[in-house]
Write a structure and sequence with these properties.
Radius of gyration: 19 Å
Helix content: 25-40%
Distance between the termini: 43 Å
Number of helices: 11
Order of helices and strands: EHEHEEHHEHEHHEHEHHEHEE
Structural class: alpha/beta
Length: 256
């Protein structure tokens, strides 16, 4: 991957792009009025474009850039504000003051909703194995303006940790987090505009019994798995499935 700036740039944006390149340990390239496609053709690498308000990643095999956005979290929070239920919040048993660890952060949609649910007294952390996704999501959570104070505050409270889930879990104290959450890439294919950009960037990890055991060691209340309704992981790892008749994914729970 290389890092450059938007077409119309300035010294501040150039410094920001160079800092991103240093953080991600890749090369910075001057834009010099070249198009993204021409830079991609020249360098044969993905390109991270540093703009005024956000970062955009252009990958060789995708038509649209990947960038952080709160995705479904905004309308889900609005539903909670109206007093409606959210299956994810129910499955994870989240309420004010709870702590939550998301082992598969992605775009952080679930973690943002969790942050809203647990409030200022709670704690939300998300682990992301892809360094570029972790970087872009961390930066996005810090600056995205949803136009509503409660949603903005929920995003700012999410802590992003770059690393592999098992490695991070091993460093956590026993019984230190109320709910540990797992949302691996589905074994079955689901067409989703939110998931598609992640497939090229995501780090695909093997889900092992050691990982589930570590999650159970760290959690005090429950470990929750979100997966496709056809997934074999629920039964294999011993999760009690919460069936949702009209949904393509279910939640599984290990009560502790």
């Amino acid at each position: 991957m290389i890092v450059t700036t938007a077409g119309r740039t300035n010294e501040e944006m150039i410094d920001k792009a160079k800092a991103a390149a240093s953080h991600l340990q890749c090369n910075y390239v001057d834009r010099n009025k070249k198009t993204v496609r021409s830079l991609m053709a020249k360098y044969q690498e993905d390109i991270l474009v540093t703009g005024k308000d956000r970062y955009e990643l252009f990958a060789a095999n995708t038509n649209e850039p990947f960038f952080f956005h709160p995705s479904s979290s905004m309308f889900r929070i609005k539903r909670l504000q109206k007093g409606e239920r959210d299956p994810f919040i129910d499955a994870c048993n989240l309420f004010d003051g709870k702590s939550f660890l998301d082992c598969t952060l992605g775009l952080a949609s679930d973690s943002i909703v969790a942050s809203f649910a647990v409030g200022e007294k709670g704690k939300v952390e998300g682990i992301e194995a892809s360094p570029v996704i972790a970087f872009m999501v961390k930066e996005g959570l810090a600056v995205w303006q949803a136009g509503e104070k409660e949603i903005d505050e929920a995003m700012r409270r999410v802590k992003v940790t770059w690393g592999h889930a098992l490695d991070v879990l091993k460093k956590k104290e026993t019984n230190s987090i109320d709910c540990v959450y797992l949302d691996p890439m589905f074994e079955e294919n689901i067409d989703s505009d939110g998931i598609k950009p992640l497939k090229h960037l995501a780090v695909y990890e093997d889900w092992t019994k050691a990982m589930i055991e570590e999650a159970c060691r760290v959690a005090t209340d429950r470990v929750v798995l979100k997966d496709h309704y056809k997934s074999t992981r629920f039964e294999y790892f011993g999760f009690q499935r919460m069936e949702r008749k009209t949904a393509k994914f279910h939640y599984g729970i290990i009560e502790l």
